Amino acid sequence: MRKKSIHYLVVVIVGLYLLVPLVATFLFSISNTWANTILPSDFTFSWYQQLFSDQRFIEAMGRTLGICILTLVVSMISMVMTIFVITLYMPKLERFIQALVMLPYAIPGVVAAVGLIKMYSSKPIVLTGTVWILIGAYFVLILPYMYQGIRNSLRTLDVKRLIEAAEILGASKWNAFVYVVVPNIIPGILVASLLSFSIMFGEFVLANILVGGHFETIQIYLMKRLKENGHLSSAVVITYFMIVLISSLVMLKLGSRLQRHERGEKAS
Amino acid sequence: MKQKTLLFSLVAMLPFAVLVIAFEIVPLIGMLIDSFSKDEGGGYGLQQYITALTNPYYSKGMLNSLLISLYSSLIGIGIALVASYSITQMPKKIQSMMITFSNMTSNFSGVPLAFAYIILLGTSGIFTLLSKDFGWDILSAFDLYSWSGLVAVYVYFQIPLAILLLYPTYAGIQKSWRESAALLGASSWQFWRYIGLPVIFPSVVGTFSILFANAMGAYATAYALVGGSYNLVPIRIGALVSGDVVSQPHLGSALAMILGLMMIGAMWINERMMRRVRRDLR
């Protein structure tokens, strides 16, 4: 019995350790003044009000959301088509594609940024400072996650048979793919997209080095605000964290439903 | 028919191919070539690598990066080893809660994390002020914007990641092993020494390599905390290419190549180790 309580103690301590920075940031974001007291003396939501009426914040948020959605759409379409073709017609290419797709996982943001700067900051193609280079960089950044997610959900289907069946019933290959295969892998695509979304949303290195001052994403906005106003910055952090939290909760729900779905299919 | 399929396949893969070539392969090759370029006048050679490895400024940065990665990974994995074992001893509900929570906090890194630590332990941070109030001296010696501060912040983002990676390993240690060991008269210590630790050892090494790579490549956390002033490899690379001071892109490429190779090495170790685990469990 005494042994059990030690484990509880460890879990509580580690839990608290992980929680404290978050809670402190939250308290800081809703406190008016906080100095020399254990808890803040008076609470206010004015920082959030100020933040959400700050044009710069709204714009940074819009830019980040825009770039995330655009990248996700591009990635989704191109990845689904490629993975589909590979599994169906060119299984020999799979190992090669896998190596390509997993490489960004091993390459830190700074390194990727160096290569991109080298290629696109001088003629003939100048992309540094524009949104396009960031979209390209983010596309590569989320490759491993998108690949894994889509690949895993395709694996649970017998794509070849599904397509054949649809073709026998008179559908073209393309229609069979769009109306039969895609709806079946949508949950997998969504989970992969949400994960990729939180990664891009919290990305700072590429944004800072590649587009820096030209294009203020939410992380860059946060970085610039950091030294000016602590309360406001903590409101940004909490807002950011809430969005990541919501997307990971949705991801978890979708993921568990996906698993149940698979298990149900196996059982039947 | 066969030709039609081939055509369809090629068209379908075109967007992916274009994007990967333009934003992954070409930049990497460009960087590789660049890292072998000489500074003035052109020509190729190992000059940049020699500078990167022998110039005291950059080798100091390399050493700093290696040390901070080593320390933060060791501390992180140590805490996570104990914590994730304790988690496996909890009721199912608490287990899944703690894993969800670790998953959530593993997202908490970079600029937001640096900021949270500034609130907690910065010059006018909560704990800093509190400890002054109580007249404790422990924290007054602690400087968030120095070596120990960086390690503290790095450790924070290592722990949830390490918990997530180590937690499944303990499932490989079956209860029946403990029972049989106990029946044969082994003490708890002997069980861990001869059975438990050898079983989880490959996972621990694999996890360590991931944590190490994670810390080696981290840029945002350090940048947000100390700006460009602290001498770490990622920070140096960033400064060399984005031209905060004088931009020296060739040297930046060479440093980036070195960092990238270390990273791939770490991933390779991890894969080898994971393979071994899977075989062991089978």
UniProtKB/TrEMBL annotation, chain A:
Pfam families found in the cross-reference section: BPD_transp_1
Superkingdom classification of source: Bacteria
Positions in coiled-coil regions: none
Membrane topology: Multi-pass membrane protein
Residue stretches spanning the membrane: 6-28, 65-90, 96-117, 124-147, 176-197, 234-254
Annotated localization: Cell inner membrane; Cell membrane
Main location: membrane
ABC transmembrane type-1 domain boundaries: 61-251
Alphabetical UniProt keywords: Cell inner membrane, Cell membrane, Membrane, Transmembrane, Transmembrane helix, Transport
Record-stated family: Belongs to the binding-protein-dependent transport system permease family.
Protein name (Swiss-Prot/TrEMBL): ABC transporter permease
Taxonomic lineage: Bacteria, Bacillati, Bacillota, Bacilli, Bacillales
TrEMBL record, chain B:
Domain of life according to the entry: Bacteria
Segments passing through the bilayer: 66-87, 108-130, 150-170, 191-213, 250-269
Predominant location: membrane
CDD domains, per database record: TM_PBP2 (cd06261)
Keywords, in A-Z order: Cell membrane, Membrane, Transmembrane, Transmembrane helix, Transport
Pfam (any one): BPD_transp_1
Domain ABC transmembrane type-1: 62-270
Coiled-coil blocks: none
Topology relative to the membrane: Multi-pass membrane protein
InterPro entries referenced in this protein's UniProt entry, alphabetically: MetI-like, MetI-like_sf
Subcellular location: Cell membrane
Family assignment from sequence similarity: Belongs to the binding-protein-dependent transport system permease family. CysTW subfamily.
Name of the protein in question: ABC transporter permease
Source species: Brevibacillus choshinensis
Origin organism lineage: Bacteria, Bacillati, Bacillota, Bacilli, Bacillales
